[in-house]
Every structure is written in C-alpha cells, then in structure tokens.
Amino acid sequence: MTEDIKRRDFLKNISTAGLLGLMPAAAFAVPAAEALPGADAPEGLPEGPNTFLTAPYLQHLSVDSVNIMWINSRRSFNWVELYEEGKPPRKFFSEKNGLIQANNRINNIPLEGLKPGTPYQYKVVSTEITVFKPYSITFGETIEQGPFEFKTLSGEEKEVRFAVFNDLHERPQNISELLGKLAPEKDYDFVVYNGDSFNWVDDEPMIIKNLLEPSASLFASSTPFIMVQGNHEPRGKYARQMFDYFNYPGGNCYFAFSQGPVRFVVLDSGEDKEDSSEEYSGLVSYDRYREKQARWLEKEIESREFKKAAFRVALIHISPWHSGDWHGTLHCRKVFGPLMNKGKFDLQLSGHTHRYKTHDANEDHHFPIMIGGGPGFEGRGVRTLIKGRAGNEELHVQMLLDDGSIAGEYRLTQR
Known about the structure:
Elements lengths: L1 H21 L34 E3 L5 E19 L6 E3 L2 E2 L2 E2 L1 E11 L6 E15 L2 E16 L8 E6 L7 H10 L7 E5 L9 H17 L4 E4 L26 E5 L2 E6 L18 H15 L3 H5 L2 E6 L10 H16 L4 E4 L6 E3 L9 E3 L13 E6 L3 E7 L5 E8 L2
Parallel strand pairs: 9-10, 10-11, 13-14, 14-15, 15-17
Antiparallel strand pairs: 1-2, 2-3, 2-6, 2-7, 4-5, 7-8, 9-18, 12-13, 16-17, 18-19, 19-20
Helix pairs in contact: 4-6
C-alpha cells in the first residue's frame, strides 16, 4: 500500500510540476464547462439532470443474443436488467478490454448467452457520473426505463416476415402512418430502413427526431430494425459519428444474416457521384469501398449459410440496374452485378429513384428487382411500404400504397 501511495504521489508531482513547466500557458486555457459531464456532447441537448433521449431500441436479435441501444443526455454508467420467468434478474454491461463501459451517453449493450425461443423482459438503467477522476468517481441520480419485452429466435423458424421503408428523407411520420395503416397487427419480425432516412446528418438531434425516437416509440423496443446506408447518410458534418447510433455486425455497413428460410445480404451502394466530385471535397473513397465489399460478397455467396437458404434477398439502396446512369449505379453494376447473378439471388429490394417500380428478371439481372417509392412530399414521389413473408416453399413480397393497394408484387418459389 505504501509503495502504491508513493507511486501516486510521484505521478502527481510529475503531472503538476514537470509537465506543466514544459507546456505553453495557452494549453491550459480550458473553459470551465468542459469539466462538466456531457459538456462535449453535441449541441441541442436538454439542460438539467440526466434524461433518456430515446427509448431502447433493439439491434440484431438472434437465437442467443441481442444488442440494446439507447441515448442519455448526460454521461453515465449504464446497464440492462434482464428478467426471465422463474429466474433471478441479471445485469448486462458493455465491456471492452476488461473495462466496463462508463462515462458515455450512447449505449450499445450486448446481451449474450440467451436461450433460444425464450421471452424476456428488460429495463435499461443509467446512473449519471458527475465527477470522473483517476481514483475517485462521483455518481449522481439513477434513472430507468421499462419493462420492455422481446423474444429470442428459436433457430427453427419456418417463416420470416419483414417490412421495408426507403427514402424517408426526414419524414418520420411515414413510419407511424404507414405501419399504422398497412401493418396494424405488427406482422413483421424486423423492419428495414433501406437508405436515405435523412437528407444529410448535421447533429444528433436529427438522428433521434427523424429515426430513433419514432422507431423506438412504435416498435423497436421489442422488434429490431436494420439500418441500410443510402447515398444521403454520408452527407453532413455529423455523418462520421452516425455509425455510433446503430449496431453493424463486424463494424461494417455491409453484412449478411439468416432468419427463417431467407439469407438477407445488406450492401452499401455508397454515394451516387464519382469520388472526385467537388461536392465531396476529396473526403470520400467509395470506389475502393465498393470493391472491398465485392471481395466480401464473393466469399458470402460461397458460404454454407448462403447456399443452404431457401431464398436469398439483397438489400441495397441504389439498384445496380434501373437507377439511371450516374457513376454510383454503374460502379455497383460493375462490381456487384456479376456476383449477384452468380450467387443466384432470388430478389433485390432497393430505393433511391423515388419512383416505385418492379423489374422482372432478365438477361442482365437474373432475379426480380423491386424499387420503393419516394418520401411522398414536395413532389418527391409516392411513398410505399414493402412487406415480405417467406416460408420454405414461397417468398411473397408486396409493395403497398397508402390505401393498401398493391403497387407491385412477386410470388417466388425455390429455384
């Protein structure tokens, strides 16, 4: 203990004497506000005590795990309390390299080791951290939300149901209005946001208002959603921070997952113009990024999970076909097209054009393509909701308008 104290005194003396003398005085002109918890948080957050800025939202529910995310207004110590019938409650934290995550506002807590096909209830809990020093932490008020509930997948599902939005373009009412009209019974196992949920991303409140809050309040505390990158998400001064608000498997915006008889493959089509376009100021590299994805896709279509699936569905914002002749479309066609044909995809779901349309399989793309409509305001297309249901024998997909009429439909059987 004495040696520990001497070492701490030594470190303290080094910090307050030696290092201070070497650094310019300007380095210590730190505004007092920076010492406050949450002071370095994005603009537009509420003043006052710690509050929840969103209800929890689920990401990537599986047979034995799920990620639960939410956002606080102040830096906190956060955890999930999980309840299973007949079992004592369990606490889950986010951990990395031996450290339990703390002093943060954006929470992404993995719940692992769950039982297949099991219903759970949960609460999310946050204790504000008011002072964080190397050897002393002061905690503030504890707040909680819940209970909420979810059920893990069994791994033996014979069917999967899903709902797909595209091109919301900051019209969050489309989420509640279309799901309320066209899926009032919540007959979907997950929801997909298939690109361009935003016009651009300048701050955190834009992400919360236009996507997270309406999703969490309506379904996402119990039913997960999947975020697909469009060509508008990469725009804006906060675009590079946006990835913190979603859980991407492997940290990539391209990935694959199986549910029921379907293998879903998510691709990031990137920006629509050339990397050298002046709009990007030399800060994008989408050609290399798409080529990297293509190398991954080449492995994916040879995987056991892909080959054994009854159906294979691609989710990509900009369709490599029927999306004009801008660079992004053509490059997607060049790097993804041959692999998608080789892999014998059964269906592709896209957006981007703001014009709903179906395109039957042909010699260019050996599978049908369904492109959803636009956000439905200011002349920017008619909004649609795509609903899909797949069993072992049939994949049935409908593109629906506000009044429930069918704008496009496919009934596909196993090849």
